[in-house]
Structure to design on (463 residues):
RNA sequence: GCCGGGGUGGCCGAGCGGCCUAAGGCGACGGGCUUGAGACCCGUUGUCCCCCCUGGGGACGCGCGGGUUCGAAUCCCGCCCCCGGCGCCA
């Protein structure tokens, strides 16, 4: 019998489950509630099973009854049981849907390795690259490195790089968020020419990199049904992030993770075919309802962007190792892109409900004087698999368990573009194109090759 | 979107109101036989609940959800998906 780790812990050691939930800074009282409902659920089920059994016995005897009178008597007896069952089943259905709802509202467990606390407890565990630090940001740069005991080499610059938002609209003239705002709303954008080429070059680079490592390339559905979406994310994320198609049971994906996870919805995988490593490409649609006015300028936080995503279905015993693998893949790509980053181990209070552990990769943004999130890599263990009903069968003994799922950004296009606009910016506004991207631009006549040249807004593109 | 056909266990495929709750085959797993493998023989093969829990009992399960009946894979209604034809379309 396959068991979901959270349900197993609820039944075996509810106090321990409470500690996990408390680590997420959530109210552990839900544990008592769901435990009581689960007990009631089991009790009712036992009672109903017994009544149904008696009913089945009678029902079977009707066909074999010797006389018409006997049949009539048995029918009445069966009806009497049905009346009792009706009452019990009504209770059960109530309890059952309550139980389902409560179980689905439980977050995943928290890995022992995760720092406990709110987001301020998240800890950088590794720095890479030589960030360019403007003199005015030196203090805050030190604050973001030395405070955690890291001595990070940097290049001090005396000119302040232009922020990505002004770069794209004013210096390069290759983006228009004002017009997009007028016709679609804030957090939408038009990108033009070289930045569009750059977007596609980034995607191709990530696809090339990961398929070379054996990941299977997938172009997934961009919309999913409610039941499937609810299997992948928690309700809070649903409200804050997900767009619904009017009049249809369809929701726009916020990341390819959602439809990649759903690839084996209601299926069983044999242990000898795992791990299954996928690389998906898709647009991502996000409401950003909880974001308020954060990052309103530019294209850092937008309703729509392209992303290449890593996704793995794994054996339970392999998921920790594979979690390291996907964050390492991301690191490798950002190293090759030459973007200085740090890896942050996310604190328990800031974990999403699906994950037991999460790493973010944050790139140094010279114009903001901050490290900003580019990549997020999560180990979801059996949380999504339980909800999507994806099991693993161990050949040895044909034992069924839930598979583990893992996901990580490879490259999110618009965010990575913001990082390139700030990190590869020359004092005159020229943006150097990272070397690894150039081969993906080479075949196209009108694509930029080595540089993106400044040309004020309204100026004709290219020379 | 319209008309017609169809969705049965991991897979193929019978069954079309009760001969007790899915025949038969394949696969997989366990065991027997064997020096080993194959062939062969026996058993097992979904979900859930209960118990005196190396085992035993029961409920549910035939695309999904309802309904009719003492009894539904079998009859009725709604939805989803697949195949064929027509229409529309990048």
């Amino acid at each position: 019998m396959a068991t979901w780790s959270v349900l197993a812990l609820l039944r075996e050691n509810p106090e321990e489950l409470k500690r996990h939930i408390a680590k997420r800074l959530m109210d552990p009282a839900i544990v008592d509630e769901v435990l009581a409902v689960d007990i009631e659920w089991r009790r009712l089920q036992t009672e109903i099973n017994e009544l149904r059994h008696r009913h089945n016995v009678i029902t079977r005897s009707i066909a074999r009854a010797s006389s018409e009178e006997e049949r009539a008597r048995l029918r009445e007896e069966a009806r009497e049981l049905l009346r009792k069952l009706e009452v019990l089943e009504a209770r059960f259905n109530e309890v059952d849907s309550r139980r389902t709802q409560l179980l689905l509202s439980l977050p995943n467990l928290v890995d022992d390795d995760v720092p406990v606390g709110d987001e301020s407890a998240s800890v950088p565990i590794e720095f890479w690259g030589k960030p360019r630090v403007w003199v005015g940001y030196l203090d805050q740069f030190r604050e973001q490195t030395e405070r955690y005991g890291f001595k990070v080499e940097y290049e001090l610059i005396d000119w302040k790089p232009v922020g990505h938002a002004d770069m794209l609209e004013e210096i390069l003239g290759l983006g228009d968020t004002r017009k997009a705002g007028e016709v679609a709303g804030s957090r939408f954008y038009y990108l033009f020419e070289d930045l569009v080429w750059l977007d596609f070059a980034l995607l191709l680079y990530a696809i090339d990199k990961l398929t070379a490592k054996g990941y299977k390339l997938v172009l997934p559905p961009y919309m999913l049904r409610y039941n499937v979406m609810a299997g992948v994310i928690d309700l809070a994320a649903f409200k804050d992030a997900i767009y619904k198609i009017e009049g249809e049971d369809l929701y726009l994906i916020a990341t390819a993770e959602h439809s990649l996870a759903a690839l084996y919805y209601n299926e069983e995988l044999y242990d000898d075919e795992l791990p299954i490593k996928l690389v998906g490409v898709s647009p991502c649609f996000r409401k950003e309802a909880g974001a308020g006015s954060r990052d309103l300028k530019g294209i850092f936080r937008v309703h729509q962007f392209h992303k290449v995503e890593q996704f793995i279905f794994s054996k339970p015993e392999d998921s920790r190792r594979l979690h390291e693998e996907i964050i390492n893949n991301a690191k490798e790509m950002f190293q090759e892109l030459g973007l200085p980053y740090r890896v942050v181990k996310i604190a328990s209070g800031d974990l999403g409900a699906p994950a037991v552990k999460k790493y973010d990769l944050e790139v140094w943004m010279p114009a903001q004087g901050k490290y900003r999130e580019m990549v997020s890599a999560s180990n979801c263990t059996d949380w999504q698999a339980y909800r999507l009903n994806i099991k693993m069968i161990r050949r040895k003994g044909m034992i069924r368990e839930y598979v583990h799922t893992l996901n990580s950004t490879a490259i999110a296009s618009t965010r990575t573009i913001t990082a390139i606009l700030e990190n590869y910016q020359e004092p005159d506004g020229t943006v150097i194109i990272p070397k690894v991207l150039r081969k993906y631009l080479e075949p196209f006549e009108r694509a930029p090759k080595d540089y993106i040249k400044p040309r004020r807004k309204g100026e004709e593109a290219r020379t």
